[in-house]
């Protein structure tokens, strides 16, 4: 118990996800929830969030270079990746409330080929210290043939790395 409490307090102090878990998973669905604290205000976090080229990891892009990513943060706007010789639609903005919420229909990576519905909700909540609690909720539904329970840990891992990068302050 003491070791877990120490790990949790260390993660919060370093701005790493305090919680990251596959909440539910079955062949036809999965639900993820990840949270991290940031010293950035909700306004500054929003400004960072809507520039995925500054925080999404290049390893998790099709082009191998996150500078090719863009996001139009308004309903109907796209999260896309464009480079010489290719482009990828990563998601569509369903809801944008600056400094509060960004909801995307976003079947990233291997989920695109499965014809699933994948909703990623990013919530920014002011905390007592003037910073922000960043929450990633990700829900994916398909058919039992989708084998989503096998993909859930990998998607959780990618989202955890993305969240860690988003809240990391060393680039500011």
3D structure, described in words:
The chain has 172 residues and is α+β, with helices and mostly antiparallel strands. It has a single domain, classed as Alpha-D-Glucose-1,6-Bisphosphate, Chain A, domain 4. Helix content is 24%, strand content 37%. An 8-stranded antiparallel beta sheet has the order 1-2-8-7-6-5-4-3. The longest helix has 20 residues, at 148-167. It is globular. It starts with a helix and ends in a 5-residue tail after the last helix. The model is unreliable at 1-15 (pLDDT under 50).
Task: Jot down its keywords.
eight-stranded antiparallel beta sheet, Alpha-D-Glucose-1,6-Bisphosphate, Chain A, domain 4, single chain, 8 strands, disordered N terminus, 172 residues, 3 helices, alpha+beta
Briefly say what this structure is.
The protein is α+β, with helices and mostly antiparallel strands.
CATH superfamily: START domain
CA-based shape: globular
Counted beta strands: 8
Instruction: Output the CATH class name.
Output: Alpha Beta
What average pLDDT do the residues reach?
89
What strand order characterises the main sheet?
1-2-8-7-6-5-4-3
pLDDT below 50 for ≥5 consecutive residues: which ranges?
1-15
The helix content is: 10-25%
Q: What does the largest sheet look like?
A: 8 strands, antiparallel
């Amino acid at each position: 118990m003491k070791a877990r409490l120490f790990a949790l307090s260390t993660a919060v102090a370093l701005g790493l996800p305090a919680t990251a878990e596959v909440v539910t998973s079955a062949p036809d669905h999965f639900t993820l929830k990840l949270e991290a604290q940031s010293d950035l205000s909700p306004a500054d976090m929003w400004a960072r969030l809507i520039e995925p080229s500054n925080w999404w990891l290049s390893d998790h892009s099709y082009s191998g270079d996150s500078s090719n990513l863009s996001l139009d943060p308004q309903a109907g706007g796209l999260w896309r990746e464009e480079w010489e010789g290719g482009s990828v639609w990563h998601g569509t903005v369903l809801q944008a409330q600056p400094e509060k919420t960004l909801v995307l229909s976003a079947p990233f990576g291997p989920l695109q080929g499965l014809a699933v519905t994948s909703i990623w909700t990013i919530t920014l909540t002011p905390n007592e210290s003037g910073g922000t609690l960043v929450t990633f909720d990700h829900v994916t539904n398909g058919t039992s043939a989708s084998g989503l329970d096998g993909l859930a840990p990998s998607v959780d891992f990618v989202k955890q790395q993305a969240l860690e990068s988003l809240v990391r302050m060393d680039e500011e």
